[in-house]
Amino acid sequence: xxxxxxxxxxxxxxxxxxxxxxxxxxxxxxxxxxxxxxxxxxxxxxxxxxxxxxxxxxxxxxxxxxxxxxxxxxxxxxxxxxxxxxxxxxxxxxxxxxxxxxxxxxxxxxxxxxxxxxxxxxxxxxxxxxxxxxxxxxxxxxxxxxxxxxxxxxxxxxxxxxxxxxxxxxxxxxxxxxxxxxxxxxxxxxxxxxxxxxxxxxxxxxxxxxxxxxxxxxxxxxxxxxxxxxxxxxxxxxxxxxxxxxxxxxxxxxxxxxxxxxxxxxxxxxxxxxxxxxxxxxxxxxxxxxxxxxxxxxxxxxxx
Amino acid sequence: xxxxxxxxxxxxxxxxxxxxxxxxxxxxxxxxxxxxxxxxxxxxxxxxxxxxxxxxxxxxxxxxxxxxxxxxxxxxxxxxxxxxxxxxxxxxxxxxxxxxxxx
Lengths: 304, 103
Description:
Chain A is mainly alpha-helical. Helix content of chain A is 71%, strand content 4%. The radius of gyration of chain A is 18 Å and the shape is globular. About 4% of the residues of chain A have low confidence. The relative contact order of chain B is 0.12. By secondary structure, chain B is mostly helical. The interface between A and B is large, with 42 and 42 residues.
C-alpha cells in the first residue's frame, strides 16, 4: 500500500501485525511499545524523523485504549500524571527541536539510530538485573513494601530520593508516597519527554523504570500512570512533529487498528503476573528493537 | 423510550471510566469464552473498518498535509484520538453484549 504523505510503500498487514504486538505490550507492560514500533518502522524503510513523529501519533490512540483498562482497575495516579505532563511537554518540544536540527544536518538516521541502540541495551540490562535479583532475593537492599508483589532489589534508592527536601514537597497518596520533592517529579518528567520527542513513542521504556526505581511508585500504578501521562505527552508530540512535517498519520492509523486488538489481550494478562515478574518479562524486549535498528543501519535498506 | 436509551448510554459511559473496587473488578472480569468471542468479533470489525474507511483517506490527508501543516496536525491528532476512543467504546460494548448473551 502507498503512503503518499511520507512517500513510502509498506505492506499494511505488516503494520497491523506490528501494531498488534505493540498493543499487547502496551496493555501488559504499560509502555507504548516504541522500542519495537520505532525499529519496526525503520526497517520497513521509513526515515528516522518520520519514525519518531509517526510513532508518537500512533501512541495517542493506543495509549487511550490501554489506559482505560488500568483506570478502572485503580492503577492511575491522576495527580502524578498531571504534574508530570507539564515537564514532559517541555522535554518533548526540546527533543523535537533536536530532530529538526539533525534533519538539516542529514544525520537523523545515524544519530537517532545509535542513541536508540544504546538506550535500549542499557534499559534491558538494568531491568533484567533488577527483576532477577528481586525474584531470587539476592539484591543488597531488597525491600518489602506494603504490597508484597512490589518488592525491588533497588527499593532503597527511591527512599533516598524521597529524603531530598527541595520544596515544594508533595504527597502522592495513590502511589503510596508520603512526601517527595515536586522538582524530582518534574526532572523525571522532562527526561521522559526528551526521550519521547527525540526517539519517538511515549518513552515508557524510560519513564516506567524512572517511576518505579527513582520515584518509588508501585509497579501496577506506574504502568497505569505512565499510560495516562503518555496520552497527554504524545498528543503534544504529535502536534509538534506534524507541524514540522514528520508525521504520516495514515501509517499510524493502520498500525493502531492492530494495536487496538492487541491491547485488549495485554490488559487482561496483567491480572495474572506479579510486579518483578512483569519487569523480568519486559527486560529482553528492548534488545529486539536494538537488533532491528542495527539491521537497518548496517544494511541501509528496508527488510522485505 | 428515548429517556431509557439515553439513561442506558449514560450508565454505559460512566461504567467505562468509573474506578471499580477489587470485588467489582473480579466480578466484571470476562469469562474466557466471552473474551474470545468478543475479540473475534472486534477483530472482524476492525478489518472491515480498514477496507471500508481507512484505505480511502490517504489522498485527502496528503492534500491537507501539502496545504496547511497546522490543520494537518489537528486533523491527524483528531483522527488517531477518535479512532482510539471509538474502537475502545466498541470493544467494551461488544464485551457487554457478548457476556449478556452467553449468560
